[in-house]
Amino acid sequence: MSSAVVVSSENLDEKQQSVSTPVVHAAEKKVNLLGMSRAELEKFFEDLGEKKFRAGQVMKWVHQYFVTDFAEMSNISGKLREKLEKICEIKAPEVVHRNYSKDGTRKWVFRVGDGEGSLVETVLIPAEDKTGARKTLCISSQVGCALDCSFCSTGKQGFQRDLTPAEIIGQLWMANYSYMEDVPVAERERTVTNVVMMGMGEPLLNYDAVLSSMQLMLDDFAYGMSKRRVTLSTSGVVPKIDQLAQDIDVALAISLHAPNDELRNELVPINKKYPLQQLIAACQRYLAKDGNESSRRHVTIEYVMLDGVNDKPEHAQQLLKLLKNLPSKINLIPFNPFPHAPYGRSSRNRIIAFQKTLSDAGFVCTIRQTRGDDIDAACGQLVGQVADRTRRAEQWKKKVAQRQEILRTQG
Ligand code: SF4
């Protein structure tokens, strides 16, 4: 089989590139092996009359050496390679656009599905930490999102569909591959060190596909990532947090963004279904499941700082009260405004004061560095630009224009 995915190697210094990915489309009905878990691949090979260990061999070629051409899988017999070539493929989502920022942030827009398909985005953020250079990939789990958080660019695009495991793990595959397009196979190494399921979509509403993708991330035959380096971030789908606790050990983050129900109902509407008390209790149960695991010693609280909305001293006090019995680390996120956003970013002084209140009370509280401002790193922003085509986005713009008109006439 010829290479299923080849990204053109253009000048990567250029800020922004529309990429026409040369993809050799395989004949229809070939099975895509990219998103298969070890158990699924073992069954696949057994059904072919082969030994189970072939699964591990193929997984290593695909996820550790980023080989998509069966002809290159040298420890597999020629006969089996020919068979695989005929009936299956390894196919990552197609890159239609990419931005590489000067600060090292990389962002891709992928086309998923056939024909025109749909667009999702993935962002990689580099940082230095105690253990060295960290490269964190923020992965999408759905095309758009149904939850419509009021500060979120993705929510404005509406929900289209869930991603498949191949489309989810394909984002990790492609981000790694982007660093080794010209590296010989034997010298290829995985570059992405951390994953957060925090891109477009609510991961717990695409539970099975997200779970099996995270299992691949942890699998030693695939990415072999440590549990504490894989984080699932949810807006608070309480029953699924409990299910997750049973199914896998990964780190948990909560998109909280408000310290009381009234405000959270407005910013994160799923709060009306699962209010704060229920959410905090679910987090406590998650940690209690195996509190000694390094991935489960605390929950990360994500809190976007919206000017004059949730950033006042009283909000910091309410947050302290809310989190007093939940081991947590708080990450304050300066809002990254998108076109027609109804909010502004809190001032630096306001954010620092908010952080101080939490730190003084003993919480580890960090301020997320704004990265990739030059490439529109806010979730959903780039797809919104590449294809702003849903009715909801249009309606949203109209609403904002109406509101501005009212303010103008009120003087
Ligand atoms: S913040 Fe997350 S859950 Fe809320 S609308 Fe955006 S993608 Fe969906």
TrEMBL record:
Residue stretches making up the Radical SAM core domain: 131-374
Gene3D superfamilies: 1.10.150.530, Aldolase class I (3.20.20.70)
Compartments, record wording: Cytoplasm
A GO CC term attached to the entry: cytoplasm
Entry-linked CDD domains: Radical_SAM (cd01335)
Chief location: cytoplasm
Catalyzed reaction equations: adenosine(37) in tRNA + 2 reduced [2Fe-2S]-[ferredoxin] + 2 S-adenosyl-L-methionine = 2-methyladenosine(37) in tRNA + 5'-deoxyadenosine + L-methionine + 2 oxidized [2Fe-2S]-[ferredoxin] + S-adenosyl-L-homocysteine; adenosine(2503) in 23S rRNA + 2 reduced [2Fe-2S]-[ferredoxin] + 2 S-adenosyl-L-methionine = 2-methyladenosine(2503) in 23S rRNA + 5'-deoxyadenosine + L-methionine + 2 oxidized [2Fe-2S]-[ferredoxin] + S-adenosyl-L-homocysteine
EC numbers: 2.1.1.192
Pfam families: Radical_SAM (PF04055), RlmN_N (PF21016)
UniProt KW keywords: 4Fe-4S, Cytoplasm, Disulfide bond, Iron, Iron-sulfur, Metal-binding, Methyltransferase, rRNA processing, S-adenosyl-L-methionine, Transferase, tRNA processing
A single GO molecular function term of this UniProt record: tRNA binding
Residues annotated as binding [4Fe-4S] cluster: 145, 149, 152
Residues binding S-adenosyl-L-methionine: 201-202, 233, 255-257, 336
Cofactor note: Binds 1 [4Fe-4S] cluster. The cluster is coordinated with 3 cysteines and an exchangeable S-adenosyl-L-methionine.
Classification via InterPro entries: Aldolase_TIM, Methyltransferase_A, RlmN_N, RNA_MTrfase_RlmN, rRNA_lsu_MTrfase_RlmN/Cfr, rSAM, rSAM_sf
An individual GO BP term: rRNA base methylation
Active-site annotation: 121, 379
UniProt cofactor(s): [4Fe-4S] cluster
UniProt similarity note: Belongs to the radical SAM superfamily. RlmN family.
Record's function text: Specifically methylates position 2 of adenine 2503 in 23S rRNA and position 2 of adenine 37 in tRNAs. m2A2503 modification seems to play a crucial role in the proofreading step occurring at the peptidyl transferase center and thus would serve to optimize ribosomal fidelity.
Additional information: Reaction proceeds by a ping-pong mechanism involving intermediate methylation of a conserved cysteine residue.
PANTHER family attached to this UniProt entry: 23S RRNA METHYLTRANSFERASE (PTHR30544), RADICAL SAM CORE DOMAIN-CONTAINING PROTEIN (PTHR30544:SF5)
Protein name as it appears in the record: Dual-specificity RNA methyltransferase RlmN
Organism of provenance: Acinetobacter gyllenbergii CIP 110306 = MTCC 11365
Gene name linked to the record: rlmN
